[in-house]
């Protein structure tokens, strides 16, 4: 066959494949006769929602069902927007005890040039395990050093990191220095020596000065970069330019009240747009955070309080912050347990957090914090079709998730957990 003769069949096959893909995208999925929970609007009883082309096409009680749609009977079920984990290292780690499966940190204190998305493993066994509890989107980030790099906002579906990406560089992660717990250092004198409080304080102050200086250098670099051309690039400083300009937020990991106050002063001096993450002592400065309209990512709530802390400090903190008017979101802070995100929010409701606010804190609140509320976080026409169908409240451990859709595609519930379950259920019995 000559080249001219075989070109036509190839082109025809390509056209057919494209048409097939377009048909699949145009085909609607309809969930009907369910209770729709938009989060930002009242519930819709006996409602219908249509997903098409990766978006929510329509929802309500009087929605015309397309004749070619795939129908999901929602009788007795509930439809929610996909949950958003505001802080995890999902996709960056597989088995913590095996170094080869870890890609969560780099050497050195200053790594703003790191784009964490490039290290995400789309085929991690932890991703399908996470999705079956309704978590469809996550902010994944590295750790370590003073500046860990740019966090990525991803959907939990896709063959490549690029396919998963919602915002490849959604925020810069900064670990604000702390005097920390009493540590050890040095090897003289016959053993390890405890560092004094003064030594730890001096070490912290030195790191704070280094952090300030690095950001000041980035500001100077950005100013010169804007006025001149042909300058030699500094990839570390250049990576901070959109954050120095306030175009993107800076996540500052800060736990104690002193750290949080230091982080606020740091942001004020550099005019940064910040999100506080961790905030274990957030309740101590809740009024300040509320007045300054600084959002806070809380959690994980599965930590035990210290010996000298009230037993309910960790669990009541989110309710105190939200009660003061602080916009909160929840993080799992752990790839292996990102699937438990809804139960962090549930635990907080037992200690004062309003249940409706708890639901917002795993849906629309993180979407607002990261500038994607026009596409994520609630059930609204035109938004990305990340939804899941349940037998009840997703914050209730008794609830079962029946269906999950990411960008309108139905997600399989086959994962490592189900595989092991089926494997051992079929284990031969002894005679």
What does this structure look like?
With about 425 residues, this protein is α/β, with parallel strands linked by helices. It has helices at about 5-25, 125-130, 160-165, 195-225, 235-240, 240-245, 255-270, 285-290, 315-325, 340-350, 355-360, 365-370, 415-425, and strands spanning about 30-35, 45-50, 55-60, 70-75, 80, 85-90, 135-140, 145-155, 165-175, 185, 195, 250-255, 275-280, 295-300, 330, 385-390, 400-405, 410. It is about 30% helix and about 20% strand. The strands form 3 sheets. Strands 1, 2, 3, 4, 5, 16, 17 and 18 form an 8-stranded mixed sheet that branches. An 8-stranded mixed sheet has the order 6-7-8-9-12-13-14-15. A two-stranded antiparallel ribbon has the order 10-11. Helix 2 (about 125-130) links the parallel strand 6 (about 85-90) and strand 7 (about 135-140).
Spell out the blueprint of helices and strands.
Blueprint: H1 3-26, E1 29-36, E2 44-52, E3 55-60, E4 70-73, E5 78-81, E6 83-88, H2 126-131, E7 135-140, E8 147-155, H3 161-164, E9 165-175, E10 184-185, E11 193-194, H4 197-227, H5 235-239, H6 241-244, E12 250-254, H7 257-270, E13 274-278, H8 286-291, E14 296-298, H9 313-323, E15 328-330, H10 341-349, H11 355-360, H12 364-369, E16 387-390, E17 401-406, E18 409-410, H13 416-425
Parallel strand pairs: 1-4, 1-5, 6-7, 9-12, 12-13, 13-14, 14-15
Antiparallel strand pairs: 1-2, 2-3, 5-16, 7-8, 8-9, 10-11, 16-17, 17-18
